[in-house]
Amino acid sequence: MVFPVSREPRIQCDVVRGTGPALLVHGGAWDIPPEEREAHETGALAAARLGLGSLRGGASALDTVEAVVTLLEDDPALNAGTGSVLNRRGEAVLDASIMDGEDLRVGGVAAVRTIRNPVRVARRVIEATRQVLLAGPGAEEFAREQGFEALRPEELVVPREVERLRDHQARRRAAVPGDTVGAVAIDGAGRIAAAGSTGGTLNKRPGRVGDTPLPGAGLYADSRVGGVACTGWGEGIARLSMARAVLARMEGGQDPADAARELLAACWSRLGGTAGLLIVTPDARLVTAWSTPRMARGWAHGGMETPAAAA
Question: Model's pTM, two decimal places?
Fold first, then answer.
């Protein structure tokens, strides 16, 4: 989980050639401890199962990724919503975004503390404003205006993360990456969408915002090309505009798995960082790639009886 890593990482990649509708979900790419792997895999599988049921029921890709990420935000085993890692003050501070690949509408919220499911508020940014990203108290005020219930910030905090922060600070280490959650999907009408949510990095500086709410960095969706959701070292992902860079290579004719490997290699060779990403293509290919030791992920498509997951 510590950044930077000491030696060149091994890039791993899974490719599933599915049939639509289809989706990929993730519960973060990092060095998941052995005692937490089962919970991460279980969370990814539950999200994939929910997403596949939603798509088979005729829901849009946008509705599906919102529902999937909401479920992941409510899973205290993961770093989004309830159970997020804590900043140096011991606060859970959240970022989220969602993007519709049909018309390139995107909404995000950043640095919020009183919202249980920030991805739902990000969706409302698309529907009720002409903005792309709202942050801090302004985003929380918007959420109240839209009828979202305010919660006490401590309701997002779980004992595991209190202990993790205490141990981390006792060792006087720098901020380290935390896992993000995300999803990309294509529905029966060929519409593609992406969504992501995160508590950011353990012991992060107050005010820090990572890649997740930034369109083109943490995610991007274009129904003509594909959808991408990223996780890992947020600053590196943002500096490479990783999600949009992958799709740009695909627009130029590059195979999506090769594009993913190329961006992950650049993250290491140019910046010394590691990451993971999901890709869904218009022909329902599902690509997962990561340069971290592990990545929690789930996948499903129209030709599968049940979803699959791994961590």
Answer: 0.95
Residue 207 lies in a domain: yes
Q: Between 118-128 and 61-73, two packed helices, what is the crossing angle to 10 degrees?
A: 150
Active site residue 180: yes
Q: What is the CATH number of the domain that holds 292?
A: 3.60.20.30
Q: For helices 136-145 and 118-128, what crossing angle results, to 10°? A: 80
Euclidean distance between CA atoms 79 and 157, whole angstroms: 11
Q: Please give the structure tokens belonging to residue 75.
A: 């899973």
Pairing mode of beta strands 219-222, 226-232 = antiparallel
Residue 240 lies in a domain: yes
* Domain, as residue range, for 172: 12-304
- Give the three-class secondary structure for 26: strand
Q: How many CB atoms lie within 10 A of CB 147?
A: 7
DSSP letter for 216, please. T
Catalytic residue among 64, 180, 274, 281: 180
Is position 6 within any domain?
no
- C-alpha triplet 297, 301, 302: angle, nearest 5°: 165
| Domains held by the chain: number | 1
- pLDDT tens-place string over residues 12-22: 999 999 999 99
pLDDT in tens, 128-161: 999 999 999 999 999 999 999 999 999 999 999 9
